[in-house]
Specification:
Blueprint: E1 9-11, E2 16-21, E3 30-34, E4 37-41, E5 57-59, E6 65-72, E7 81-82, H1 85-91, E8 98-105, E9 109-110, E10 117-118, E11 124-127, E12 130-132, H2 136-145
Antiparallel strand pairs: 1-2, 1-5, 2-3, 3-4, 6-7, 6-8, 8-11, 9-10, 11-12
Length: 150
């Protein structure tokens, strides 16, 4: 990784870094601010030569989230994502078990029920920020857990 002016970075321990320049003189050519204090890094974002450090830079990937709604049924493995709760309610069949908010994101996560990776190219649902996959077994667990304050 080579540090760039047009990307966002944070330290290994999660502190925000504002990159000021990447072409300063010397081996530590990257200059940035952490909490208003100037620090310097090697062009690859490493703080020390020989060891890893909490000050090493990590690129912050932008995440994009789209909110949709899904009607859940016990006997149906096909799903439709609705733009709003109201539209999901309008499109619901009488045998709907639940209607849940779904967060579609551009990163991989683990299902809170089966712990399998969720391929977000399809979708991952969210309950209080915890994600679940679209396997029928997990959706059944989801509907049963509604009253348990998951």
């Amino acid at each position: 990784m080579i540090i760039s002016m047009n990307k966002k970075y944070e330290t290994q321990d999660g502190r925000e870094v504002r990159i000021l320049c990447v072409d300063a003189e010397g081996l530590d050519s990257v200059v940035g601010l952490i909490d208003g204090v100037a620090e310097r890094w090697h062009p690859n974002g490493v703080y020390f030569d020989e060891e890893t450090s909490n000050f090493d830079l990590v690129e912050v990937k932008e995440t994009h989230t789209i909110i949709r709604w899904i009607n859940i049924y016990f006997d149906d493995e096909s799903y439709h994502l609705w733009e709003s709760r109201e539209k999901a309610d309008e499109g619901a069949r009488k045998d709907r078990v639940a209607c849940k908010q779904v967060c579609i994101m551009n990163k991989k996560c683990l299902c809170i029920f089966c712990r399998n990776p969720i391929n977000i190219k399809f979708w991952g649902g969210s309950i209080g920020g915890k994600l679940f996959c679209n396997r029928k077994e997990c959706l059944i667990k989801l509907s049963k857990s509604q009253g348990e304050g998951l």
